[in-house]
Amino acid sequence: MNPFSSGTRLRDMIRAIRACKTAAEERAVVRKECASIRAAISENDQDYSHRNLAKLMFIHMLGYPTHFGQMECLKLIASSGFPEKRIGYLGLMLLLDERQEVLMLVTNSLKQDLNHSNQYIVGLALCALGNICSAEMARDLTPEVERLLQTRDPNIKKKAALCSIRIIRKVPDLAENFMGPASSLLKEKHHGVLIAGVQLCIDLCKASTNALEYLRKNCTEGLVRILRDVSNSPYAPEYDIAGITDPFLHIRVLRLMRMLGQGDADSSEYMNDILAQVATKTESNKNAGNAILYECVETIMGIEATSGLRVLAINILGRFLSNRDNNIRYVALNMLMKAVTVDSQAVQRHRTTILECVKDSDASIRKRALELVFLLVNDTNVKSLTKELIDYLEASDQEFKGDLTAKICSIVEKFSQEKLWYIDQMFKVLSLAGNYVKDDEWHALIVMISNAPDLQGYSVRSLYKAFQTSNEQESLVRVTVWCIGEYGEMLVNNVGVLEMEEPITVTESDAVDVVEVALKCHSSDITTRAMSLVALLKLSSRFPPTSERIREIVMHHKGNVELELQQRSIEFNSIIQRHQNIKSSLVERMPVLDESAYIGKRAGSSQATLSADKSSQPTSSGASSLKLPNGVTKPPASPLVDLLDLSSDDAPVSTSSTTEFLHDLLGGDLISPAPSGGGGTDILMDLLSIGSPSASTDIPVPNTISSKQGNAREPKIAPAPVMDLLDGLPSRNENPVYPSIMAFESSTLKITFSFTKQPGNPQVTVIQATFTNLSSSAYTDFIFQAAVPKFIQLQLDPASSSTLPAGGSGTITQMLTVTNSQHGQKALAMRVRMAYKVNNQEKLEQGQIDNFPPGL
Description:
Elements: H1 10-18, H2 23-42, H3 49-61, H4 70-78, H5 82-95, H6 107-114, H7 119-132, H8 135-148, H9 154-170, H10 179-185, H11 191-207, H12 209-218, H13 220-232, E1 240-241, E2 244-245, H14 247-261, H15 265-281, H16 287-302, H17 307-321, H18 326-340, H19 344-348, H20 351-358, H21 363-376, H22 382-393, H23 398-415, H24 419-433, H25 439-450, H26 456-469, H27 474-493, H28 508-520, H29 526-542, H30 547-555, H31 563-578, H32 580-586, H33 595-615, E3 641-642, H34 658-668, H35 683-688, E4 705-706, E5 711-714, E6 741-745, E7 749-758, E8 761-773, E9 780-787, E10 792-796, E11 811-820, E12 830-838, E13 841-849
Antiparallel strand pairs: 1-2, 3-5, 4-5, 6-7, 7-8, 8-11, 9-12, 10-11, 12-13
């Protein structure tokens, strides 16, 4: 016989397919077999149609298309013999689904078979209807299914109940047709019928509130009877599992009781006794018993049970926590999290066991237990629970430290009643897991310290001691550096020593050593190093004998690759070396920040961040915002072209952000922020990053300026010329004739600007730039570039020459036309860059011009 003819047996085809060594061979065998089956279908071969359909079902299970055999299913279903119908219905369930239009053709055959005298054929039709029933078929065949629910045969009843579940899920409006038959099924003795009937009642409750009320009135008593009978029944081998009679029926009945008792005190009262009996009599040494107990606990917590019954349920969950099975412990923790809201006191009794689960080796159990502990914390147990969690923090796994640290910080912040206790606990967390503490948390700690003047000395001494052993914890280093910068004299002079403190001796040099270590540590990021530079500047005023050493440390970073650190180093050195008369006022202690205002702003920032994360996506993967606290980095700079061709990290931040709020604390709000229409922040703010940055709504979008020499990319806005602390106050000239200014001066190059206005057009200013070479070598290929904010338009005319003579013997002039669209509201700001060659070597100088005369 041909191995691929229609007469091939199914087992022969399976052998041929399994003998294939490659996927290509398997596809060839399947292709030939499908071709043979198609030929047999086209020839209307009735003798082997059931065999061909069996082959198609196997081919379908292998993942190959078999749609050409769908009509064969309908033909076999329409035949009179049981074997053909069996194969036909099996093919119907496998090869078709409710979305197939051809399924409409089988409705009449199903109706006939549901009324057939042979119970096995009726069972086939019910199985098929329960698997592929569509909404249209459900409406057409519901009367037949209702009738079959009343038959005497338990197998037909069971299949009809399962078919009814499918009908209700497809057409919930038909639920009322099955309420009466469903309640009558609960009086059956056959467990299979009972389970199907209970599941039908559950689906009825979900589909219709009328059905829920009907079953609550008519079935509660029957369910209690079923549960009592099955719980007290003697050994029955056909239903016994691990010594428990039919745990599946137990669980289904408990679920239905939970739905009927939820929100109904009368039904719940009727269930209390049987639930207590199941909870106390069921053994928990087998998994089947644990499943029943868990479902019983969930039912007790879901209905209006008595307080004693709820305590019993929570005690069962406490026993689950001692089980060696991780799954049982996990579901117990889940249920206890729900139970906390119902009876917190009963859950508190198992606090010790729950804390042990926090130390479990299973990550999911640890995380769930930690969430439960967080819910258990209250004013009476906060100190003991926090101590347990902090003790475990040191030994916990690295991947778990982040979650554990966040929860501890939340607990300490939420439940702290004493500032000293809060500070102590946060110092412990910073020492053990400072690298995992979020910025918001250590910012809040700084706010707390600034608001506790009697604890500032204690705080700085505690941090100094913690730094000696845990200087690798980034957040600890930042808080230590900030506190030493603010309260360094308290550390040295032992101000505000508490009774419990051990006396320590710290010299001025020791305090500077700590900041120097933080500054030079290889693991310190730009935030920590910038904070360290600010702290050193403050210490230079508080500890005058160390001023020269501090200046040397600061100048060590004048060539740092990080522009932020390089700029601060140069500016701070200038303050220390040349401006002693203003240094003390610049580095005064930060004003106390309103703690309640900070908490409110922080909460608002969190909500705004959440909504922003949901509604927007980042526009560029490379444009990440660098969030540094105040006194650490400049406030959001003004939108000028970035003449250094560096991407900007400190992007403008919302005025409600936590980072900006901390700017007020860490940098000092010495001057009132510029008004809404002002032109940027003050020189002092830009120099030391102190004060509040201008609102983000006033910051224009970066604009790119094109000139004859090339294009430059725009950075942040330049500060407005409110006050030049290093070079005196600018004079306000009411005369319309504007004085010339020294726009830029270095050891090798000087630039002066002179200004003229067009009559009747105050927005337009013509600037004549004059370049003078102060060196002894001539400059060739001289190029001048300038960048301005978006609200300013700039036009560069060609320069008078590209060669600048040496020694000031000649100059180059170039005209710039500037149009200020917000004249009278925002001042001019400009950043410049000069490129030239000296002896064929390229040189580059740049600077920022912010001393334009008022009125431009």
